[in-house]
From TrEMBL:
GO molecular function: acyl-CoA dehydrogenase activity; flavin adenine dinucleotide binding
GO CC annotation terms, alphabetical: cytoplasm
Residue ranges annotated for the Acyl-CoA dehydrogenase/oxidase N-terminal domain, each copy included: 40-158
Residue ranges of domain Acyl-CoA dehydrogenase/oxidase C-terminal in the record: 268-417
Transmembrane segments: none
Alphabetically ordered keywords of this record: FAD, Flavoprotein, Oxidoreductase
Cofactors, names only: FAD
Protein name: Acyl-CoA dehydrogenase
CDD domains in alphabetical order: ACAD
Keyword Chaperone: no
Length: 421
């Protein structure tokens, strides 16, 4: 047997290993194909949503803030919601990421980041139907009967959904869940309590998580159930006002009987579909954070040259310049990180670390940027006449919702260190 020394055409600059020239050329071509801008059709959609926000939602900010100031909460009334729904439907903005076979447009996550970025620019609370997180959970877990009964009407905007995961004393740790579902012939009997449920009283159905398989030596098996409003034993206990003008609910399940066919997905395997739902909301939050931070920065850029103190405009003050420079840098990083994560999701990659990174980094960064904008505006920044206070409060809640920043930082560190606790 004769061995011959291989000719090292090119060495990888990072590993020092030899790379075949043809491989190197192809890799170079692949690198040249990297594109950090949205495809034309997705940019057109982003521009369309921007126009929708400008023409339909921004004019409603004053009435939303007036209601919140009066202690009524931040919301659109029925007439406003009907007008906005009609406008968004006419513009073709419903069912953007829903499957085509049920009337959606099947858009990728990258496109939805652009949509979320534009929606984040306003404090008017509005979701383009259907709300993506619960939609995507239904998409991956619903069987044919459930698709007809729940997914299709949801995509058409005929129903409202909620999800019940968190419990008193078991928020960020799903393994602390105590709500149980016990099989009784063909039905399931659910007992327990859920909290922090958005739209808990208004939803036509709630995706409810419960333990179905207890394992004293490992992770309990949890399952998801589709529970209709009005189901006996599904009791809304109280409405909980939140600091961003919205409200959540606490719900008790008292021998709540659910038909067997409403088990969503496989028994004991509800964790993975739930993570799809949570991951979607987290990347949505990152997208909204970009929009809020961008608007706050633009407000600073516009106001700083107009306001003078001690003979100089604020724009001449180094502190203000640093605030604006830091905002632009963080927004650039937020945007790149979020689109990168979205692209990896569309590619089917494991993005658990990236989702935790962007959820923590984007909400925390946007909160700091909005806080600097409030400081820049001085006394006016402390009023309820500017949208900054609602943006700040929304970001403050987002730093907790769907996993606090500290837990997401722990997830990233745990993945890097290879530890389980």
């Amino acid at each position: 047997m004769v061995t011959a020394a291989l000719t090292c055409d090119v060495r990888n600059r990072y590993t020092g290993r030899c790379v075949d020239r043809r491989t190197h050329v192809q890799q170079s071509k692949d690198k040249l194909q990297m594109n950090f801008e949205l495809p034309h059709e997705h940019q057109m959609l982003k521009d369309l949503v921007a126009r929708f926000v400008r023409d339909q939602l921004m004019p409603l900010e004053a009435s939303v803030m007036a209601r919140e100031t009066a202690g009524q909460g931040a919301y659109l009334d029925q007439a406003e919601t009907a007008r906005v729904d009609a406008a968004s439907r006419e513009m073709g903005l419903w069912g953007l990421d829903a499957p085509e076979e049920v009337g959606g447009m099947n858009l990728p996550m990258v496109a939805m980041v652009g949509v979320g970025e534009e929606l984040g620019r306003t404090v008017v609370p509005y979701y383009l139907p259907p709300d993506s997180p619960n939609l995507r959970m239904l998409m991956v877990a619903a069987d044919e009967r459930q698709r007809v009964a729940y997914l299709e009407p949801y995509v058409r905007g005929e129903t409202i959904s909620a999800i019940g995961i968190s419990e008193p004393g078991a928020g960020a740790d799903p393994q602390g869940m105590t709500t149980t579902a016990v099989q009784d012939d063909d039905d399931w009997i659910i007992n327990g309590r859920k909290i922090w449920i958005t739209k808990g009283a208004e939803a036509d159905f709630t995706i409810l998580m419960a333990v179905t398989d207890k394992n004293p030596n490992g992770r309990n098996g949890m399952s998801a159930f589709l529970v209709d409003r009005g189901t006996p034993g599904f009791n809304v206990l109280r409405k909980i006002p939140m600091i961003d003008g919205t409200a959540t609910y606490e719900i008790a399940l008292d021998d709540c009987r659910v038909p067997g066919w409403k088990l969503l997905g496989k028994r004991g395997q509800g964790f993975a579909p739930m993570q799809v739902r949570l991951g979607t909301r987290r990347i949505e939050m990152a997208s909204w954070s970009i929009g809020m931070a961008q608007r706050a920065m633009e407000m600073m850029v516009e106001y700083a040259p107009q306001r003078s103190t001690f003979g100089k405009p604020l724009s001449a003050r180094q502190t203000v310049q640093n605030w604006i420079s830091d905002a632009a840098t963080k927004i650039h990083a937020m945007r790149l990180m979020t689109y990168d994560c979205a692209w990896k999701i569309d590619e089917g990659r494991d993005t658990r670390s990236e989702i935790s990174m962007i959820k923590a980094f984007c909400t925390e960064s946007a909160y700091d940027i909005v806080d600097h904008a409030m400081q820049l505006f001085g006394g006016m920044g402390m009023t309820r006449e500017l949208p900054l206070y609602l943006m700040s409060n929304k970001l403050r809640t987002m730093r907790i919702y769907d996993g606090p920043s500290e837990v997401h930082n722990w997830v990233v560190a745990r993945n890097l260190l290879g530890t389980s606790d």
